[in-house]
Amino acid sequence: DTGVSQDPRHKITKRGQNVTFRCDPISEHNRLYWYRQTLGQGPEFLTYFQNEAQLEKSRLLSDRFSAERPKGSFSTLEIQRTEQGDSAMYLCASSPGQGENEKLFFGSGTQLSVL
Amino acid sequence: QKEVEQNSGPLSVPEGAIASLNCTYSDRGSQSFFWYRQYSGKSPELIMSIYSNGDKEDGRFTAQLNKASQYVSLLIRDSQPSDSATYLCAVNVPGTYKYIFGTGTRLKVLA
Lengths: 115, 111
Known about the structure:
Strand content of chain A: over 45%
Oligomer: heterodimer
Helix content of chain B: under 10%
Largest sheet of chain A: 7 strands, mixed
Radius of gyration of chain B: 13 Å
Mean pLDDT of chain B: 95
Number of helices of chain B: 0
């Protein structure tokens, strides 16, 4: 068990470009979350997958954001036409289940800077 | 009203003292409560989870939950400089799959 892995660790892009981030959850976890965190704030929920199904998406998320988890294993988060306001740490978390197992295990995050 | 509220701090305590961190939440239906520790530049790390009213102890950490008052707290006994971090409170949102985080309380343990 190597924990939740995210790639890349850092991404610098120009406004208007598209970016894609990858998350590999803990292998036996079927629940996967994407969160976004800016300086001085707590993580903000973006979307949730149970296996390959995207069951919830934040209403705050614009149409420029899309996420997939094609085979119920790794997930990708794509941001199209990036804006400076998208600059943040993008965190992926996985969870083994419900009840006492609903704890979130976070990856190291991808720090996005939009110039 | 924010869904999960925490005092941003910083909360400064001397080494060896008890640090008390507090969190209030707005949805009475919430059932799952978590405390995460986040060092600067790192991702959140789970410290404690609590689901029932009362206290739950794990080593130097005690989580306290009072659903009637919509209040959850974290006590850190014998605080160490290595405990200096931001502590995030997270609460489930009933009827959804998401967890809402507070803005965190920055704790400084002074040697």
